[in-house]
Specification:
Radius of gyration: 25 Å
Number of strands: 5
Distance between the termini: 93 Å
Number of helices: 6
Largest sheet: 5 strands, mixed
């Protein structure tokens, strides 16, 4: 009979372990497929289409391994449902070399990195890092109606870089390329 309390203890531990395992399994299964970064990326509009269809656009540079990107996935799913008729949503995975020109063009040095485009496809603002849902919604509301974004860093006009020298000219290091 002294074995009975020990056996009861082992049964309780086993039941708790099974319950926790089942709970963890179902919590992962319950994650909405629409909040998955991969699925959202597959369902996003191609960048070239978004920039030419006369609607404002939010482009997100992300990576699957980015914990902030993963944390924002649910909020992005919410705003895509709410603003999807009036704003394009584009997702660009920085781990895909295809997007290297855009990564360089928009100076992506941290993710998530959001670029806001007006309906003509012109860059009007950028934000970097995890954004609260309220901030994201305020920016998207303004973007949808063509107002200034309240929580974004505006980007100025840039000039294209043009080479200054012919390939056969010598460069004087003291000239700093000028």
């Amino acid at each position: 009979m002294s074995n009975s309390p020990e056996r009861l203890k082992n049964i309780v531990i086993a039941l708790v372990a099974v319950f926790l395992s089942v709970s963890i399994y179902f919590s992962f299964q319950n994650q909405s497929a629409s909040t998955s970064l991969d699925l959202q990326a597959k369902n996003s509009l191609p960048l070239n289409v978004a920039l030419t269809n006369n609607k404002p656009t939010l482009a997100e540079f992300y990576a699957d391994w980015c914990t902030s990107c993963q944390a924002m996935a649910k909020d992005l799913s919410i705003v895509k449902k709410k603003y999807g008729e009036s704003v394009n949503f584009v997702m660009l995975n920085i781990d895909n070399d295809k997007w290297l020109p855009e990564v360089l063009r928009y100076r992506v040095d941290g993710i998530p990195h959001f670029v806001f485009f007006d309906k003509e496809g012109k860059t009007i603002a950028q934000t970097i890092g995890e954004q609260p849902l309220t901030v994201l919604e305020a920016n998207l509301t303004a973007l949808a109606i063509g107002d200034s974004l309240p929580y974004a860093t505006a980007s100025g006009t840039v000039s294209p870089v043009k080479p200054q020298l012919e390939s056969n000219q010598a460069i004087d290091p003291r000239s700093h390329g000028g």
